[in-house]
Each structure stands twice: as C-alpha cells, then as structure tokens.
Amino acid sequence: MILFFLWRDKAYHFQQLASSTPQLRVSQLLSEFGLKVILPYTRRVIVNINVKIFVLIVMLCISMYTPSTTAQAGKYNANAVDDLYNFYAESRGVNWKNTDKYKGSWHANGIKEHYQNSLYKYSGPTSTYTAKHAPLAVEKGKFTYFIINGQQEEYPYTPRQAAASYNTSHKISPISMMVGKYDNVTGTLYPPTTVHVKSTTDSHDNASINVDSDGFLYVFVSGRSGVRGGLIYKSNSANSIESFKLVYSGKHSIETLDLDCDPNYAPNGWELCRNEYRGFTYPQAWWTGNKFVLLHTIYLPLTYDDPAANPSYMRATYISTVTPTSGGVTVSSPSKLVAVKGDYTKGHYSISKEKNGTIGLAFNLHVDDETTWKGKAVAPHDSRTNLYFMYSKNGNDWFNIKGEEVASGMLDRGTSNRGITKPSQLSSIAVKEYHNPVTGETNETTWCDDRHAVLGKSSPSKYVCRRVYLKDIDFTIDAQGKPNRVEILYVANRSVEYSTINNVSKEFGPYPSPEIAENDIYLARAFYNKDNALGWQTERVKDASGKDVVDHNYSSGTLTIVDGASYIITPASQERDGYAGQRQVKVLKNTTGAKGSWNEVYSKYSVPLTAGKTANYVRSVHNSTSKFRVLWSEGLADVDADGGEEVKVYLGDLTNKKLLLPNTGTLPINGKYVPFN
Fold first, then answer.
1. Transmembrane residues, as ranges (predicted)?
2. Interatomic CA distance for residues 446 and 54, integer angstroms
3. How many CA atoms are closer than 13 Å to the CA of 557, on its beta-carbon side?
4. Which helix (H) or strand (E) holds 363?
5. What is the DSSP string of 486-519?
6. I need a labelling partner for 167 at 20 to 30 A (CA). Which of 258, 419, 577, 621 fits?
7. Residues with Cβ < 8 Å from 380, sequence gap 6 or more?
8. Which domain holds residue 300?
9. What is the chain's alpha carbon radius of gyration, rounded to the nearest angstrom?
10. With contact defined as beta carbons under 8 Å apart, do 280 and 299 qualify?
11. Residues 6+ apart with CB under 8 A from 641
C-alpha cells in the first residue's frame, strides 16, 4: 500500500503498463525507482534487491491499479502525457537510438465489411500516411531530415484488435516515430532515432517533422480525436538527430475551443464541454519568421443538445503558433480557423504547404447526404465534397485567390468564431463547389441521375454526387508573397456506385470495390494561374495512354512545381482490385501547367510489384532542391506480415531513381553510402 501511494504521481506510466506484458510492467516499474534493469526480451530481471519479494509487491500493486482504456480515456485528460498509449523511452530505461534499421508500419481501417466483406475501407503500408500530416521530410543545408512512422524492434508486437473479421493470430507493432537523415552531397544515410512509441496501430497518430532557422528539429506527434492528444519533441542539438526531448503535451477543454459549447448546460450529467479535452490531430507545421504556424485538426461535437446521444464529431481546422525558447517551446492557444457547421455542413479535412513564409490551405467540406450504404446513412466525414483555397503571409490574416481578406486576427486574440465558420462565407474562397453548402443540394444532378434511378432513389438533389479526397497542394508566389500559381491534387469519384450481378443492383456508396467503373473514379487537378483569365480550372489527370490513374479514394500521390513544370508522383493502376495504392509509382510531367498536357515520363518500378503488394502515400520533401524529392511506403495490400515480409520505405527523385531504406541488418552510427539507383 505504501508503494502504491508513492507511485500515485506516476499514474501515466501505470496507464501504459496496462497494455504491456507482465515482464515489461515489472521492468518499467523498477526503472521508476532508478533500479538497474536488464530485460532484453527474456524473462531475466536483474536488480540489486531480493527479486522475488519485490516482484510480488510490484504485481500486487499492479493488480490494485490497472486502469482500463474506458476508465481513463484521453478525452478526460488535460495533458497528453496522461493519455493511454504513449510509451516513453525514459520509462523503459532503454535508449531508442538502438534502432539501426528502418522498419515500416502497416494499418487497416476498420474491419472487412466492404465488397462482400472482402475489403477494408483501406489497408496497406502506412509509414508515410496521411496527406494531412505535413511535412514528412524537409531539406536544410546539405541534409534532408525525414520521419518514418514505423516499427521499433525494442518494442514487442501486440495482437491485433479482436474483431469479427480480424485474424487475431496476426500481430503488428505499435507505431514508432523514427527520424532519419540523408546527406545529399555525400549520399550518406544515417540510422534512425526513435523519438516516441505509441501503443496503438492507428496510423492517424503518425508524426510530421520540420526544422527552425537555427537547425533544431521538431517532431509533431499526432493525437487522434478525443482519445489521444498531440505531442511535440525538439532535438537537443541543432542539425542533429541524436536525441530529442518532449517539450509540449498540452490539451484544451472543449469549453475554451468552441463558443458553441455552454459549460453550464449539462442535462443528465452530460458535461461534454466542461470535462472533455482535445489535443492536435493531423499536424501541419510551417516555419515562418521566428515561429512555426501549426495548422491542425480538432474534433468538435456536432451538437451539445442531446444528452442521451453518443455525439458525432466534426473535423475543424485550428491554428496555433509554436515559438522556440531556450528551454523548449511556447505554444499559443488554438484559434478556430475553419469550422463550417450549418444546416447541411459538418466540418472538413484540410491540407497545406508553405513557400517563403506564405501558407496555402486547401480544404473540402463534409455535408449531409441521403446516400445510404447497407441501409445506413453515410457518415459525414465520408460525405466529403467541394474544394476551397485561401492563403496567409503570416498565419494571422487570410485571403482568397483575389487577395480579398476572408479571416483576420487569427493569432492576435483568444479563441473566437472569427474564422470561416458559416456556409455563406465559402463562396468567396471556392475553387469548385460540386454541392451547394447553403441549400444542401447537389450542383450537378445530371452526372448522378442514372445511378440513382437504377437504385430506385428519388430526386438526387440531396445526395452527394461527387466526393473529394485531398492529396497535395503546391504553389508559387510573387515578390509580395501572393500566390500567382496554385495547383491542388485530389481524387474524385461518383459517390453512388452499383453493379448488376444476376440482375441485382448493388450499392457501394463511397467505399472500395473492384467493380467501380473506370470513368467513375479518377485523379484530378484544380489549378489557377494569374495570367489566365479563366480563373480556377479543374481537369481529370490521365496517363499518356489516356487511362485513368487511380481506382481507390485512398490512393495518394503528391504534386510539386519545379522550374515551371508540374510533376505528379502517384500510385498508378495496373488493375482494378479495390485496394488502396497500386503496384507502380508513376511520374507524370506537365511542362507548362496547362490543362491536359500530362506525359508519363518515368516509372519508379521498371517491373510492377507482384500481385498482392502495393505502393502508396507518396509524399514530397519540403524545400527540396536536391535529388531527394519524394518518399513512399510499400508492402502487402491486404494482410499484414507476422514475422514475414516487412513494410518498405523508399526515397525517390523526379526520374526513375529510388533508394530503399535498409529494413534489415544494421546501419553504422556514422552512416553509410546509399545511392539512388
């Protein structure tokens, strides 16, 4: 009992231990007292005390205090350090630097409930996931620093989530955020440093990375909804990946984040806005002047009026600043930048990029949708459509493409509803509106009439006709920092799909299927050039043979503008198999950025990957001027390997050259020459 109270201030370590093996629990508890522990994944524990007696006391304490994930969910913690799932190096008594290889990670979303219960919503290698974590690599001086969200060999494998369609004999490793470094002059690749480990396989918790003007590196570890908060690590030395320290783990109550939340309204004890806290998700960190502008997502309840309901959440974009200090960082309170909640609108996803201090932001819109799937309404975050753009030269004031101010004072004052929060504000920043956010009706009924008729639907006006999945954004600026050329990459699909098998119509909604017709899902580019009087334009991107490039909403590529030419590096279809990613990564080039001028110039694989494998989540290197331009993940499309083939991560240039990050053997501490081939 005495030990129990002594350890009470170490509650967050007990929370981590709840999901660990008994041996690791003992190891971590002993290390809390500074006792020497040697536990190289054997059952041998060596300490300078009577082991048997002490272990009995320890295990008794564990049995008295083993919190469940439901008893202390992250949304009730005011600090992300107290969340479940986080696993800190100091609590293990090990040095994460012992990682000497790049091992990728694999993730499946949900269970196999799509296309005759044979497909996940998406699955596959996710070390470079998602398009909403940015940047994943940044060049400074002669080095490129990058983050690989992979596996740490010192952390044990854990069984997969026990669900009806999971094979629980398969095991995957929790996510390890590993920072790597590549010397673009000498071709030297250095071994990664593991900064943080999360006891979850949810790749939404992946991290992003950036560097300040003094060369210090920052790792932004994403949280997830209300379950897990975000964390910020900073390198202990400039231009070094040797070691990092945790410098921020703050969270904020919904009461302070959303003025729609009334903390005095708590019927039946449902004190949602007073008792729930949020950290950041999807971190997008951009260095401007003397600070980072951190764009991130916070999940807000759609309503505070139904105490009996388990609330649905909308995704909203918030903005904070992260300013370096001698001891770490100072992080400002988040301000609501984009959170469109109306009669028909329920939030959005966003992507961004920075060029010489100017930040460009693109986002879609989540709307009410009468489309059904298996007799159920489609979730708002799957009813995503439309495309919007705005920019800022300082993060404080935001403008549309015409230079008209649309939001101001975002960093000057406390939290308020002064960002983009109403459907009526969207028209001035619209790139393409497939759906009317004010009336809730589609703007393009002709493209969906036939599909709805076959399915026996009524008027399609309230159905989302075309869905938009954001992939990347790039732009150039003039001498005043105003964007003069903007390009946005996305995947669009006709959202109500069907096939006729034995004269029976089957509805797939926005979900994967190998039967989705080629002309109903495609890669698209929205683009603007100030010298073109047409304003915003959109186009369907096809390869040199005129074939559509993608067949899945989550096939994710990147877009970059280099020396006036536009490049798209993307997974490219070999066959329509219903899986995210594809068996090739192709480089498409448009020398002028004009509409319909794409040529396939290279393929990253001279021979496509074998059936069952996939490459996905191609990401660009921020501020790159060297050979190293992109990175992506490769692995099995459907079933994660258990002790078999590992997920691979590749670095690539704008031609057919690539570099496989070593995922077997060891890299020497001083690095090794690894060229692009």
1. 45-65
2. 74
3. 29
4. strand 358-366
5. EEEEEEEEES--EEEETTEEEE-TTS--TTS-GG
6. 577
7. 302, 312, 314, 346, 347, 366, 367, 368, 369
8. 129-156+173-332
9. 25
10. no
11. 106, 635, 647
Nearest to 365 by CA among 383, 390, 343: 383
Is 32 among the domain residues?
no
More confident residue, 667 or 19: 667
Taking Cα atoms as reference points, which of 421, 424, 425, 464 lies closest to residue 441?
464
336 forms beta bridges with 318
Give the whole-angstrom CA distance, residue 108 versus residue 354: 31
Report which of residues 44 and 133 the model is more confident about: 133
Phi first, then psi: what are they for 25, rounded to 5°? -60, -45
3-state secondary structure of 613: strand
Q: How do residues 267-290 score in pLDDT, each as one tens digit?
A: 544 566 777 899 999 999 999 999
Whole-angstrom distance, CA of residue 302 vs CA of residue 596: 41
CA 483 – CA 400 distance, rounded (Å):
10
> For 603-635, b where at least 16 C-beta lie within 10 A, e where not — what string?
ebbeebbeeebbbbbbbbbbbbebbbbbbbbbb
pLDDT of residue 642: 46
Give the span between the Cα atoms of 284 and 354, in whole angstroms.
10
Pairing type for strands 188-198 and 672-673 reads: antiparallel
Helix (H) or strand (E) holding 56: helix 51-64
Distance (Å, whole) CA 343 – CA 45: 60
Q: Count the domains in the chain.
A: 1
Confirm if 618 and 628 have CB atoms less than 8 A apart.
no
pLDDT > 90 fraction of the chain, expressed in percent and rounded: 51
Neighbouring C-beta atoms of residue 186, cutoff 10 Å: 10
Mean pLDDT of the chain: 81
Quote the tokens at residue 38.
């040697």
Report the C-alpha gap between 491 and 557 in whole angstroms: 10
DSSP state of 429: G
Using pLDDT thresholds of 50, 70 and 90, give the confidence band for residue 97.
low
CA distance linking residue 138 with residue 187, whole number of Å:
16
State the CB neighbour count (10 A cutoff) for residue 324. Answer: 19
Q: Is position 414 within any domain?
A: no
Cβ atoms of residues 300 and 226 within 8 Å:
no
| Structure-token match 């082991």, residue found | 51
SS3 for 203-222 is HHHCEEEEECCCCCEEEEEC
Total residues belonging to the chain = 677
Amino acid at 632: W
Q: Are 584 and 628 in contact (CB under 8 A)?
A: no
For 329, phi then psi, to 5°, come to: -150, 160
Closest listed residue to residue 639, CA positions, set 614, 605, 617:
614
User: Do the beta carbons of residue 228 and residue 74 sit within 8 Å?
Assistant: yes
Cα distance between residue 132 and residue 306, in whole Å:
31
Residues 29-66 as b or e (16 or more Cβ within 10 Å = b)? bbbeeebebebeeeeebebeeeeeebbeebeebbeeee
598 bridge partner residues: none
Q: Tell me, what CATH number does 326's domain have?
A: 2.40.128
- pLDDT bracket for residue 458 (50, 70, 90): low
Nearest to 467 by CA among 560, 344, 585, 552: 552
Element (H, E) at 411: none
**Residues 587/602, Cβ–Cβ less than 8 Å:** yes
- Helices marked H in 247-326: 254-257, 272-275
